[in-house]
Amino acid sequence: MTVEQIQQNVDFIKYLYENKDMRGLKDAINTYEAIEVVHILEELSPEERVIAYRFLQKDLALEVFEQLDPELQEQLLNSFSEVQAVKIIEEMETDDRVRLLDELPATVAERLVTKLSYEERMKTALLRGYEQETAGRVMTPDYLSLKKNMTVNEAIERVRTSDVDRDNLNTLYVTDASRVLLGIVDLQDLVIAKPDQTVGEIMNEDIVYAMTDHDQEMVARMLQEHDLIAIPVVDRERRLVGAITIDDVVDILEEEATEDFHKIGAVGKFKINFREARISFLVAKRIPWLLVLVFMNIFSGAGIAYFENTIEAVVALVFFLPLLIDSGGNAGSQSATMMVRALATGDVVFRDWFKLLFKEIGVAFSMGLIMALGVALIASFRAPEVLMIVSITMTLIVVVGSLIGMSLPFVLSRFNMDPAAASGPLVTSLADIAGVLIYFSIATWYLGIG
């Protein structure tokens, strides 16, 4: 669906709402596919969204609700009675339910959980018992397991009569009496196998699986690397406890990418829709890092004050100050961005730091020399007396800024912190401080100022 088609659908629903044609709105909203309704609801105002959603037929409403972002799910739940909210949550997939409950206020979440049926409450408690952002927390406990001595006919009949969601039936799991994972069978392989063959004969024993305490991002990478549509999740005794499907992985990767972008931009974590966020909320999320960086930049000011005599002797030095320190910060941000991405995808690990250090020195020194030629050209017209100073400084600042940007993600990773916290603003501030000290130290030495 194109952006133009989405906007046409949104405009049509808005037109019906504004003209109070509720019968027309009800008929129209139910003609769309679930994903089309999701796009429409995302563009409506909160009031319009609630009305449009309430007109959805039961099956479509549940399918749409599961695909909405958590903040929109919460908005809709707040518009329902407790009985209606419990009914919706009861019918959700367990992993989607847990993801929603994590977004709700703790008291609200607990109250809703106590209203669930015993079976659904136990499934929910199982997932919520695992740590946040682990495989156990995001897996679905709804899967179909087979026994290796089953015939293909018996297995197909079990699939046919199973109440497991059909999206979770593409990959089937073979377990023993103790639920220990023995192998996997793709549904298509089961269908084309001979009826009298056993499941043990066609199952794949070369299994890629995740542990319940594995990080969700690592599990998502495993599915990508092995080109899987689902991956089983086992406990320490290799007993099957759940599975993670490709649609879960898409949600995980989107969540992790959003979180990393926020960290790189020095913005606090938030999941609310940006368009609907209050000014006070956005200020609260952005101001902490900015205040930290303000106080960090005091060191830059202190460095400039320390070299006051040098600046008074050659005022032309001030002209090149922004140009030089910004270049160091820019080079550092480039290095940090590339290294954060490489660490996130697993392309590099901590032990690669020393090898990459020398490579980065070579790259940064080459870039520094090229940029030094540029700044030397400017200085030859503006202030020839500082040409050598700014040229040497440019080279060193680019090297130092690049090394700060490359190394900081590794340092954070070494202490089990998120490398994305080596944000652009943080790297830039550190490079600025180093740049001021390098620039005026070289100027003081070159000019022979005591």
**CATH homologous superfamily grouping of the largest domain:** SLC41 divalent cation transporters, integral membrane domain
Tally the helices.
23
Residue share in helix: 55-70%
Q: Any idea what the shape is?
A: globular
Low-confidence stretches: none
Overall average residue pLDDT: 84
- State the end-to-end CA separation: 70 Å
Oligomer: single chain
| CATH architecture classification of the largest domain | Orthogonal Bundle
Largest sheet: 3 strands, mixed
Provide the CATH topology of the largest domain: Tetracycline Repressor, domain 2
Please provide the count of β strands: 6
Question: What is the topology, as strand order, of the major beta sheet?
Answer: 1-2-3
Provide the CATH top-level class of the largest domain: Mainly Alpha
What share of residues are in beta strands? 5-15%
Describe it for me?
The protein has 450 residues and is mainly α. The protein folds into three domains: 3-131, MgtE N-terminal fold, CATH 1.25.60; 145-255, CBS-domain; 297-447, Orthogonal Bundle (Tetracycline Repressor, domain 2). The protein has helices at 3-18, 22-29, 34-43, 46-54, 58-67, 70-78, 82-91, 94-103, 106-114, 118-128, 135-138, 152-161, 187-192, 199-202, 216-226, 246-264, 279-296, 298-306, 308-313, 316-345, 353-382, 387-414, 424-447; strands at residues 145-146, 171-175, 181-186, 210-211, 230-234, 240-245. Strands 1-2-3 form a three-stranded mixed beta sheet. Strands 4-5-6 form a three-stranded mixed beta sheet. Strand 1, helix 12 and strand 2 (171-175) form a beta-alpha-beta unit. Helix 20 packs antiparallel against helix 23. The protein is globular.
